């Protein structure tokens, strides 16, 4: 069974930059996996940030950016703010209509 | 603005069937994949499957034999049935809209379903 891997947690200073990654237990992530990223605060539904690797969803600040770094998808937050403290999930399309979410990365801003 | 709202019982007994409905407002169901995603308390998101507006479905292999999905575009609703539930199925269940590019762009607020006798 294919597992989507994310760092469990990250800490970033206010105004700092952090890059979260999204990998596969077997193989490399490519644009063909259509990586998407979601932000979830406690008790709330996830909010779409990035889709199709690079595209920001409507209303998402440009301090959030998506990319492919090496063999993983990546979400970079540039100029982190206190409001960015929450959990971030990636999702990959594995083909045949099947999507999988990663385990999530909890980001702390301090 | 598209809005989704889950409805159904918040408590289901073990071995019984969980049934949820998602009502879509503010947009057409056409050309989209209508998806169910769940999240056990304190855990990660799990993609359960989708039903296309035309009625074709696909579901997570780990759930495939227990999941049934249906759609009623005349009512702007789609539904989930999960049979033979156990405590492991206790989760917040979200419905979401998905189009191309693996994007889940609109989500319901979620409904917590507890499996307990």
Secondary structure layout:
The complex is a heterodimer of chains A (110) and B (117).
Chain A: E1 4-6, E2 9-12, E3 17-24, E4 36-40, E5 47-51, E6 55-56, E7 64-69, E8 72-78, E9 86-93, E10 99-101, E11 105-109
Parallel strand pairs in A: 2-11
Antiparallel strand pairs in A: 1-3, 3-8, 4-5, 4-9, 5-6, 7-8, 9-10, 9-11
Chain B: E1 3-7, E2 11-12, E3 18-25, E4 33-39, E5 46-52, E6 57-59, E7 67-72, E8 77-82, E9 91-98, E10 104-107, E11 111-115
Parallel strand pairs in B: 2-11
Antiparallel strand pairs in B: 1-3, 3-8, 4-5, 4-9, 5-6, 7-8, 9-10, 9-11
Short note summarizing the structure:
The complex is a heterodimer of chains A (110) and B (117). Chain A is an all-beta fold.
Describe what this molecule looks like in 3D.
The complex is a heterodimer of chains A (110) and B (117). By secondary structure, chain A is mostly beta strands. Chain A has strands spanning 4-6, 9-12, 17-24, 36-40, 47-51, 55-56, 64-69, 72-78, 86-93, 99-101, 105-109. In chain A, strands 2, 4, 5, 6, 9, 10 and 11 form a 7-stranded mixed sheet that branches. A 4-stranded antiparallel sheet of chain A has the order 1-3-8-7, with no helix packed on it. In chain A, strand 7 (64-69) and strand 8 (72-78) form a beta hairpin. The mean pLDDT of chain A is 96. By secondary structure, chain B is mostly beta strands. Helix content of chain B is 0%, strand content 52%. Chain B has strands at 3-7, 11-12, 18-25, 33-39, 46-52, 57-59, 67-72, 77-82, 91-98, 104-107, 111-115. Classes of the chains: A mainly beta (110), B mainly beta (117). The interface between A and B is medium-sized, with 28 and 21 residues.
């Amino acid at each position: 069974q294919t597992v989507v891997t994310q760092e469990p947690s990250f800490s970033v200073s206010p105004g700092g930059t952090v890059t979260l990654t999204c990998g596969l237990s077997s193989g490399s992530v490519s644009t063909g996996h259509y990586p998407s990223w979601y932000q979830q605060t406690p008790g709330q539904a996830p909010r779409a940030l990035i889709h199709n690797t690079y595209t920001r969803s409507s209303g998402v600040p440009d301090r959030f950016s998506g990319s492919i770094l090496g063999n993983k998808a990546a979400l970079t937050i540039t100029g982190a703010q206190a409001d960015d403290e929450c959990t971030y999930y990636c999702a990959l399309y594995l083909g045949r209509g099947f999507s999988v979410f990663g385990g999530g990365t909890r980001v702390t801003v301090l | 603005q598209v809005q989704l709202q889950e409805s159904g019982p918040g408590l289901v007994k073990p071995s019984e069937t969980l049934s949820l409905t998602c009502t879509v407002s503010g947009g057409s169901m056409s050309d989209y994949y209508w998806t169910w995603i769940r999240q056990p308390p304190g855990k990660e998101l799990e993609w359960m499957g989708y039903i296309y507006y035309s009625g074709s479905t696909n579901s997570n292999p780990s759930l495939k034999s227990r999941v049934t999905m249906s759609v009623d575009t005349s009512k702007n609703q789609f539904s989930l049935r999960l049979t033979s539930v156990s405590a492991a199925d206790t989760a917040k269940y979200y419905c979401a809209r998905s189009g191309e590019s693996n994007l889940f762009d609109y989500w319901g607020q979620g409904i917590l379903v507890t499996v307990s006798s």
